[in-house]
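sry for the spam today, last one i promise. struct tokens for design, 115 residues
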């Protein structure tokens, strides 16, 4: 009987250790997933940040045809252009214009993200 009780006690202790290890791993795994999601969101938001004012970009956005990059807010690009600057705010190529582009998926994403 003493051997059975000892085995039972050892199994309970082992079970507790395994449960703790699993909880710790799952908690750590959740942390990693959250960190990856936050890092990815941060990269996306940096990608769509207005090059001129450095603020979050909202639709409609201006995309430069010269460097094929998101410039940012229409109003910022218009102010840039109206101030006599004829170069792209990103690549500095001559002939910058303020054509807007509505990218439906991106517009919806930008409207839904709060940062």
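last one done:
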């Amino acid at each position: 009987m003493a051997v059975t009780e000892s085995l039972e006690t050892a199994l309970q202790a082992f079970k507790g250790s395994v449960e703790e290890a699993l909880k710790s791993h799952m908690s750590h795994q959740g942390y990693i997933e959250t960190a990856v999601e936050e890092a990815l969101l941060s990269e996306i938001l940096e990608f769509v940040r207005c090059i001129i004012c450095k603020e979050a970009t909202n639709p409609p956005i201006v995309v430069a045809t010269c460097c094929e990059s998101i410039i940012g807010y229409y109003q910022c690009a218009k102010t840039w252009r109206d101030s006599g600057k004829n170069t792209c705010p990103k690549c500095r190529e001559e002939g910058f214009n303020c054509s807007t582009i509505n990218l439906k998926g991106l517009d919806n994403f930008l409207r839904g993200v709060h940062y």
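The CA atoms of residues 2 and 8 lie 10 Å apart. ok im logging off now
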